[in-house]
Write a structure and sequence with these properties.
Structural class: alpha/beta
Mean pLDDT: 96
Bound molecules: ligand BES, zinc ion
Strand content: 15-25%
Helix content: 25-40%
Radius of gyration: 24 Å
Low-confidence stretches: none
Oligomer: single chain
């Protein structure tokens, strides 16, 4: 998919389809021009409340030769006061989908207006968001389609028109492209089946993808994982016939502060002996989304040449109920030396993360650690798909919240009070892997468990169970992986000093 930046005004734009956003407050300059030429069709629709500018509304206008653009697609942007760059990103994502699926064009053009005092974001932020929105809206996972391939509609080119093509605008498109491509790469990984994207294949792919950007990739195979006594990862792996992998990525940008991102990489979560229901298992190829997000983020940081010294740590295994599977009642001596009483084999993510967090803290000695994981169904109950849960140390969370504001990917903080820490106290080991009251505060209990494996480094945990994968169609996503988090974490790294 080719996105190019062009200079020009509506009259000069030759395209199959021109996409324009309109706020509820009324028509802007370009929309007015369109309205005048097309016999007030748009203002009439607004007067008659057929089109109000409410977010997500669409109106298709045929230009009948009055513009060089053949058709115009108007997208409602909603209330201007509440509009953020996430609004713009979603609107263009929706526009691209309507252009492809309803109107059936391969090419389109759109524009971004220069800023007025009412805007909260810079023009660069808007250009970047629109570029990302185009890539995400146009995303399709077609690898396994064999029938009628010619009939599958695709967008080939998008032209972004500005009144003036500045160096800053070019840079903003480039940034949007890098982040958008990283997010669609994460989607590809999440959408791939667990039988294909095994731990071994995930690790290989990480190496292949990162090499050309100067990222150093180290892979531990099963022997090395055994030699290091990463027994948490090994316990979860024991019911699977596929070997585990432990991946360490390093991008050494210009900075003396080190950040470690840690990802849960369960390539398929059957639940283990505490086997999931059929419905609960349906989407569990996505249980490596945290690991994929870490990989996507390090790729975007390296391509953007961000001044950060960044590590990515990904613990990869399936969680299966094979003959040798770990069991309820087992006590594991984790890589840290701390012991874990296993009371539910489906709470496996926290066990592999325990080893990964210890490795990150002890071996890499970063200034901060952020882990990303599809960790709990409880987080989906609490926050749904609108926001990810975040739990941990105040300073790190503060920075994440700032990045969330800029990036438009929402997070919501859950507390880690002492009471919750008691949930994971075990009678026979150092900690237990589910809460004493397992129906209470599941997302926080999981974080309380993780906290035992981060001794002194400022840390935050992001639970993406509800945001990484969607079963409903939205503006920016079909069913499947969302790529959630790449933009948040890239922005976080950008803003970190
Ligand atoms: N991978 C799941 C969490 C999950 C659920 C992610 C739904 C995405 C959508 C995790 O390993 C899990 O099964 N957690 C259990 C923990 C419980 C046994 C304490 C859960 O949430 O039910
Ligand atoms: Zn599980
Ligand atoms: Zn899981």
């Amino acid at each position: 998919m080719d996105i190019s930046l062009e200079q020009g005004e509506l009259e000069e734009i030759e395209t199959e389809l021109f996409i324009l956003g309109v706020y509820e407050e009324g028509l802007g300059k370009t929309a007015k021009k369109i309205d005048e030429e097309l016999d007030n069709e748009l203002s009439r629709a607004m007067n008659e409340k057929e089109f109000t500018g409410e977010f997500g509304q669409i109106k298709i206008l045929s230009t009948a030769g009055k513009f060089k653009a053949r058709n115009i697609l108007i997208i409602g942007l909603g209330d201007r006061q509440n509009s953020t760059i996430a609004t713009l990103k979603k609107a263009i994502g929706l526009g691209v989908r309507v252009a492809r699926d309803t109107i059936g064009v391969k090419n389109f053009a759109t524009t971004i207006h220069k800023n007025t005092t009412k805007d909260k974001n810079t023009i660069q932020e808007k250009i970047q968001a629109v570029t990302e929105g185009i890539l995400l809206g146009a995303y399709q996972f077609l690898k396994y389609k064999t029938k009628d391939l010619d009939e599958i509609k695709k967008i080939e080119t998008a032209k972004l028109y500005l009144k003036k093509k500045t160096d800053q605008a070019i840079e903003a498109v480039e940034k949007g492209r890098i982040i958008g491509e990283a997010a669609t790469f994460v989607r590809d990984l999440v959408n791939e089946s667990g039988s294909v994207l095994t731990p071994e294949r995930f690790a290989e792919l990480a190496k292949e993808r990162t090499e050309k950007y100067g990222i150093k990739t180290t892979i531990f195979d099963k022997k090395e994982i055994e030699a290091k006594q990463m027994n948490g990862l090994l316990a979860v792996n024991s019911g699977s016939i596929k070997e585990p992998r432990f991946v360490i990525l390093e991008y050494k940008g210009n900075s003396n502060k080190k950040i470690a991102l840690v990802g849960k990489g369960i390539t398929f979560d059957s639940g283990g002996l505490n086997v999931k229901t059929a419905a609960g298992m349906e989407t569990m190829k996505s249980d490596m989304a945290g690991g994929a997000t870490v990989l996507g983020t390090i790729l975007s940081a390296a391509r953007l040449k961000l001044p950060v010294h960044l590590y990515g740590v990904i613990a990869l295994t399936e969680n299966m109920p094979g003959n040798n599977a770990y069991k309820q009642g087992d006590v594991i001596t984790t890589y840290s030396g701390k012991t874990v009483e296993v009371l539910n084999t489906d709470a496996e993510g926290r066990i592999v993360l325990a080893d990964a967090l210890t490795y990150a803290e002890k071996e890499l000695k970063p200034n901060i650690i952020v882990d990303v994981a599809t960790l709990t169904g409880a987080c989906v109950v609490a926050l749904g798909s609108a926001a990810s849960g975040v739990i941990g140390d105040k300073d790190v969370i503060k920075k994440l919240k700032e990045a969330s504001k800029t990036s438009g990917e929402k997070i919501w903080e859950l507390p880690l009070y002492e009471e919750y820490k008691r949930q994971v106290e075990s009678e026979i080991a150092d900690v237990r892997n589910i809460g004493i009251y397992p129906k209470e505060a599941g997302a926080i209990t999981a974080a309380a468990f993780l906290k035992n494996f981060v001794e002194k480094t400022p840390w935050a945990h992001i639970d993406i169970a509800g945001t990484a994968y969607t079963t409903a169609e939205k503006e920016l996503t079909k069913k499947g992986g969302t790529g959630w988090g790449v933009k948040l974490l890239t922005t976080f790294l950008e803003q970190w000093e």
